[in-house]
Specification:
8-stranded mixed β-sheet, Fumarylacetoacetate hydrolase, domain 2, alpha+beta, single chain
Length: 260
């Protein structure tokens, strides 16, 4: 795909985000779109957001579960960028009308105290660079109509990132087994999803090492002070105005969010 097409698709996704509307799947219109092209489209989309005054505060890992990999026909995760405009804290309501077709995922967020620059990093390196972990929600949101996505579509669309909600308890990950910690996600007081850290590539630490090594091969570091979302611990939950959600993760505490 040529540079003009990449720029045009990145601008199209940025405008869809800004105007809160959907576009037709990119892969339907451009069957030759590769994953490498899609990351270039993502960079263009993020560049437009940075031009608006947003700044990058972290990264997210997506497609970490075997079920989602099978659905998209891939054998590796993807990644996207987090900006300051995406971040909500415990207790802050999220305007459902600021999103398009949102779904909530319970995740473990990492706060880094040192840079991580792969390749060649292990889970132990991730632990050494981590200030703490916390329960969080990622509110994924696709600009692609009806979530009819292939891996190239979601990569181009910044890994389908919408916003994130961070819990208010930071925990030392050395005191936990992040692979076995259980998750319970409630919607309007009813348990709707359960899961565990193992859903994320066997452990969130494995997913974090994958991201640091993948970015390192591209000359990109995970920076001290950045937030990294390590991947969903269970299925996505559709949300709309009026919904209240809470996620609890063993050893990490919880996180809640209300949509208005």
């Amino acid at each position: 795909m040529n540079a003009d097409d990449i720029e045009r698709l990145g601008d199209e996704l940025y405008l869809a985000l800004r105007d809160r509307r959907v576009v037709e799947p990119l892969t339907d219109r451009h069957p030759d779109l590769t994953i490498e092209d899609a990351y270039q489209v993502q960079r263009r989309m993020i560049a437009r957001r940075l031009q608006d005054g947003e700044r990058i505060v972290g990264k997210k890992i997506g497609v970490t579960s075997q079920a989602v990999m099978d659905m998209l026909g891939v054998r590796q995760p993807d990644f996207g960028m987090l900006t300051d405009a995406m971040v909500y804290n415990e207790g802050q309501p999220v305007g459902a009308n600021t999103l398009i077709q949102p779904k909530a995922e319970g995740e473990i967020a990492f706060l880094l105290k040192r840079d991580l620059m792969g390749p060649g990093l292990s889970a132990a390196d991730v632990l050494a660079a981590t200030e703490g972990v916390m329960a969080c929600f990622e509110i994924v949101d696709s600009r692609i109509r009806d979530w009819k996505i292939r891996i190239q579509d979601t990569v181009a669309d910044n890994a389908s990132c919408g916003v994130l909600v961070l819990g208010d308890r930071l925990v030392d990950p050395r005191r936990l087994d992040l692979g076995t910690c259980g998750m319970v996600l409630e919607k309007n007081g009813e348990v709707v999803v359960t899961g565990a850290g193992a859903a994320t590539m066997g452990s969130p630490l494995t997913a974090m090492a994958w991201l640091a090594n993948t970015l390192g091969r591209l000359g990109i570091a995970l920076k001290a002070g950045e937030i990294v979302l390590s991947g969903a611990l269970g299925a996505m939950v559709p949300v709309r105005s009026g919904d209240s959600l809470r996620v609890g993760i063993g050893g990490l505490g919880g996180c809640s969010v209300r949509f208005n």
